[in-house]
Structures are given as C-alpha cells and as structure tokens.
Design a protein that fits this description.
By secondary structure, this protein is of the alpha+beta class. The protein has eight helices and 13 strands. The relative contact order is 0.14. It is found in: Mitochondrion.
Length: 300
C-alpha cells in the first residue's frame, strides 16, 4: 500500500494533539485560583495568585522580570521537573531553572533531549516525499558523550547512502531556521490510546509508545509539539527552540549532532574541538548494566 504524504501525517498528528489539548483544557471550565509560592534567588517569600489548569510556570515568570521570562528553561513544581508551558493544577512551590544554576544537570539533560527533538524534526521533512523517514524516540545519551542523537528508520532505498558535507550543512541550516523561529515546545501528557492514535501511521512509533507507557509510573506518555511537529519524549524538554544557539549536524551513524545553549556560547576554537568529538559514534550504555558513579559536576 502507498504510504501517506508527510504533510498528511503531520496534519493528522496535529489534529489529534489539538483535540486532546482542548479536551484537557475544558476540564477546568471555571476560573479557580491557586497559590504559587516562588523559590530561588531574590524570590523567596514571593506569592503569586494564578489560575488553576490555565497558568503555567511561564505565566508566573511573566509576573516577575524580563530576566525570568528570557532565561527560564524548566521549572521545579513541588520538587518535580515541570515544563514551562505545562499548566499548574494545584497550589504549589515553584522554582525556575536556568542554564547558569549551581547544578545545571536537569536543564542540560532537557537541552540535550530538545536538540535531539530538533534534529528529528528536520530529518522528518528533509527527504520530502521521495523517501520514507520514520522517527523513533531519541535515545537518552549521557551529556558526557559530547553529542546528541536521533534514531531514525530510513527508507530501504537509502541503505547504501552516505550523506555529503553539503547534506549535513543543509540539515544544520534546517535546524538553525527552527531555532530562529523561537518555537515553543508545547507539552501534553496523554493516555497511551491517544498517543497510539497520534502515531497510527507508524508501526515503529507505536512500539515506542507501548514501551514508554509500560515504563511510566502514571500510565501516561509525554508528547510535545513544536510548530507542526509532534513527538514522543522520554523526559522534559526546554521551553523554546530559541534557547539553542550554536547547533551543528556533524555525522550520520544513527545520526549525531552538537549544540550549545544561548547563554553558554563557545569560542570558535572550542567549538571546533567539540565538533570533532561529536562526529564519533555514541554508544549508549546498557541500562541493565551497573551504572558507573556520576562524574563530579564541572563549572560552566
């Protein structure tokens, strides 16, 4: 059977995402107030009165300063990592996280994950409708590996294909365009049945959804939408594409790439070294093996 056009698949995924997003918003038909106790430098004791099921951590940041709006990447809501665009459903404590926090580990992990998501978004449309490209959930690669990855199932006609430097540059340009557009990563936690409907055109993605659902303590899976691209994510993403800055697609193995966040740009000589490292194949450690002790945090 002929496969549907990429635009048709994206349209279907968007429609299901929008329908479910509207359904969830309708669960809060009347405005009910919640108390949000802010935490963090200069914010301790600040109390915000927000709207239940409507206000997000980003809404809270807008009641503070321009700095909080522009630099916040993720939030901690009652000590749980929380995407900036995800509505708050109860009174809570809230801490806004940035790349320059004393411990930037959670935002670095979200950043790496988001770069993989951007890479996938570019790849999905890179081959137009000439070849089939199926995205899989991006593997959780340690930040210390020096590269982020995106797993794809390529059309069998591309089995012997090796991308040229110009192809890699073209993919990099596609990613930089998305970064320039400063698109929001919209989160949506859904039941597996909804996610299966979203990805009904992809058998590979259906398997990823089933796997994610089986590992989820709440029985839900996390979707994100960026522009017209809907993806499955294994953890929180950053708030918007504009938080990425230097970004380069460096190699095709299972596909690797390299990026730095907006607030931490590197000198071009350092960038060249990072690029060289990112060209190497990343081997994801076996999760069943005993993990090594975590490295000591380095200053940034």
């Amino acid at each position: 059977q002929s496969r549907p056009a990429t635009a048709e698949v994206r349209g279907h995924r968007n429609a299901v995402f929008s329908r479910e997003q509207s359904r969830q918003r309708a669960l809060f038909p009347r405005i009910e107030k919640i108390e949000v106790q802010m935490q963090g430098p200069g914010l301790d004791g600040t109390l915000l009165i927000m709207n239940k099921g409507m206000s997000t951590p980003l809404s809270c940041a807008r009641h503070l300063t321009e700095y909080h709006v522009n630099n916040s990447v993720l939030a901690l809501v009652d000590d749980e990592l929380w995407p900036l665009h995800k509505p708050l459903t109860d009174s809570c404590s809230l801490r806004l996280l940035t790349f320059k926090d004393d411990d930037p580990t959670p935002v670095n992990q979200a950043y790496w994950r988001s770069c993989s998501a951007l890479l996938g978004q570019v790849l999905e449309t890179a081959f137009k409708d000439d070849f089939a490209v199926e995205l899989l959930d991006s593997p959780e690669v340690p930040v210390t590996s020096g590269a982020f990855c995106c797993d794809v199932v390529l059309d069998p006609q591309l089995d012997s294909w090796t991308p040229s430097e110009e192809t890699l540059r073209s993919l990099t340009r596609g990613a930089l365009l998305l970064i320039h557009q400063d698109l929001a990563f919209e989160p949506l936690d859904v039941l597996p049945s909804v996610a299966l409907e979203v990805f009904s055109h992809s058998r590979s993605m259906e398997e990823e959804v089933e796997k994610a659902a089986s590992e989820s303590p709440r029985g839900t899976v996390q979707l994100y939408r960026c522009g017209d691209h809907v993806l499955l994510s294994s953890g929180p993403l950053i708030s918007r594409t504009g938080l990425c800055s230097q970004f380069e697609v460096t190699a095709f193995h299972s596909l690797g790439g390299l990026s730095l966040p907006l607030q931490l740009q590197a000198h071009h000589t350092v960038w060249r070294k990072l690029r060289k490292r990112a060209e190497k194949l990343v081997v994801v450690p076996d999760s069943s093996a005993t993990p090594p002790p975590p490295p000591a945090p380095s200053s940034q």
